[in-house]
Each structure stands twice: as structure tokens, then as C-alpha cells.
Amino acid sequence: VQLVESGGGVVEPGGSLRLSCAAAGFTFSRFDMSWYRQAPGKERELVATSTSAGGSTNYADSMKDRFTISRDNNKNTVYLQVNSLKPEDTAVYYCNGRNGAYDYWGQGTQVTVSS
Questions:
Q1: Cβ-proximal residues to 35 (8 Å cutoff; 6+ apart), any chain
Q2: Mean pLDDT over the full length of the chain
Q3: Residue 20: strand, helix, or coil
Q4: CA torsion, points 5, 11, 111, 109, in degrees to nearest 10?
Q5: Is the dihedral of CA 60, 66, 70, 75 positive or negative?
Q6: Cα angle at 72 between 71 and 73, to 5 degrees?
Q7: How far, in whole angstroms, is CA 50 from its chain's centroid?
Q8: For residue 71, which of 20, 16, 3 has the smallest C-alpha distance?
Q9: What span, in angstroms and rounded, lies between the C-alpha atoms of 102 and 115?
């Protein structure tokens, strides 16, 4: 099983990024796929989820305005579009795949928002 995130980097405040997470080794379409983030000195927090059933999306309350999660089941990839980035968005962003007891994590991609 592999989850490989990409697309992170250093971006100025107000900028945008599109993170990608490529999955392999499991039936991607049957898994709820989520993005989490962990800022320095803070706990990991949920950003957004794309459910396997019906493809609905759910966001943490504070993430609804600037974050968009999407998935392409043909490419086994989940995306996170982040707009109007703020310094407080600086964190490692992790991809997660979950189906019952099966719970997979990527290694994370660093996003740094700084001028």
C-alpha cells in the first residue's frame, strides 16, 4: 500500500496550491479519502474528506471557504486545492485512506506560507 503526496512547497500569502495524493495497493474507489494537516507544535487535524459512497465531501468548519477536496477514481488520486493561503496554513499535509479497520497514511508534504 502506498499513498504519495506531492504539490507542497513555499508560497506567498494569498497564493494557491494544489496537493495531490497518488494511491496504490488497495481499491481506491472503496475508501474514504481525507486530507489532514499538522502544524508545528500542534495536533494533526482533519481538513476534508471525500467519501467513497456517492463521492460526497465533508470539511472541517474552519476549512470550508478556502479548501476543496476532489478525487479521480480512474487515476487513484485525491486532490486538495487550497486558495488564499495564510501563514497559519503552514503545516505538513497528510493523505489518509480509510475503510473500516483499514487505515492508510502517506508521508506528508510540507506547505510553507511565507513572504
A1: 19, 21, 46, 47, 48, 67, 69, 78, 80, 93, 94, 95, 96
A2: 95
A3: strand
A4: 20
A5: negative
A6: 110
A7: 10
A8: 20
A9: 40
